């Protein structure tokens, strides 16, 4: 009887192809879930807020306006949040995805509690005659708010936002130990300079992603 030289493969390539497609599908689903549960914060928002912060620090440093530092900074906060919020809302509108409002809501829920606590403590400390504690408290609680909100940002910028939050916390702790004559400089460094630097870094990271 003639011997056949035909080699019969022991394994078919079909299961491997199916497994490869399944892994690709799972990776796509995972990426979609991650993108729908986080949001990108525009770097320009940080830059604009930083410019407002620097302008406030410059105005407060002038002897004529120094006694009105609290009102000037509160006005700057309103302006900065208005412009920053408008830029974030613009990005949400440009995204074209209704689901983007879910991550935005999560971001705000992480950010706002510490900011509201800061607003309440501002009134309490001012009424108690402890206004000198306010600058350090602002920096500290803002850092906590940013650090918390970093968990709701996209993977590409989450680390940068978290680092910025930690630096704000450290800056606030340092401000408590400094004399009142340096408080304006610390506020300008944080709400001004740090916002601009990290706004540029976040914008670059977003473009690279």
Architecture blueprint of SSEs:
Blueprint: H1 14-36, H2 43-61, H3 69-95, H4 101-127, H5 134-149, H6 155-176, H7 183-208
Helix pairs in contact: 2-3, 2-7, 4-5, 5-6, 6-7
Fraction in helix = over 70%
Number of strands: 0
SS-based class:
mainly alpha
Report the C-alpha radius of gyration, rounded. Answer: 25 Å
Largest sheet: none
How many distinct domains? 1
User: What string, H for helix and E for strand, traces the elements in order?
Assistant: HHHHHHH
pLDDT averaged over residues? 82
How many helical stretches? 7
Structural shape = globular
Measure the end-to-end span. Answer: 66 Å
- The percentage of residues in β strands lies in under 5%
The unreliable regions are 25-37
What would you say this structure looks like, in words?
This protein has 7 helices and no strands. 77% of the residues lie in helices and 0% in strands. The longest helix has 27 residues, at 69-95. Residues 25-37 have low confidence and may be disordered. It is globular. The protein has 209 residues and is mainly α. It has one domain (40-208).
């Amino acid at each position: 009887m003639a011997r056949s030289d035909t080699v019969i493969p022991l394994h078919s390539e079909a299961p491997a192809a199916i497994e490869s497609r399944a892994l690709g599908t799972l990776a796509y689903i995972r990426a979609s879930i991650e993108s729908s549960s986080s949001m990108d914060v525009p770097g320009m928002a940080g830059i604009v807020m930083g410019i407002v912060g620097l302008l406030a620090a410059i105005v407060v440093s002038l002897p004529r306006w120094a006694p009105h530092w609290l009102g000037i900074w509160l006005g700057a906060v309103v302006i900065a949040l208005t412009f920053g919020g408008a830029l974030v809302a613009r990005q949400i509108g440009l995204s074209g995805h209704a689901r983007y409002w879910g991550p935005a809501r999560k971001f705000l829920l992480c950010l706002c509690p510490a900011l509201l606590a800061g607003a309440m403590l501002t009134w309490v400390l001012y009424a108690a005659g402890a206004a000198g504690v306010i600058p350090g408290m602002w920096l500290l609680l803002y850092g906590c708010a940013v650090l918390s909100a970093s968990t709701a940002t996209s993977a590409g910028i989450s680390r940068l936002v978290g680092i910025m939050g930690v630096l704000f916390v450290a800056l606030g702790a340092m401000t408590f130990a400094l004399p009142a004559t340096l408080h304006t400089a610390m506020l300008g460094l944080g709400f001004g300079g740090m916002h601009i630097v990290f706004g540029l870094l976040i914008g670059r990271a977003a473009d690279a992603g």
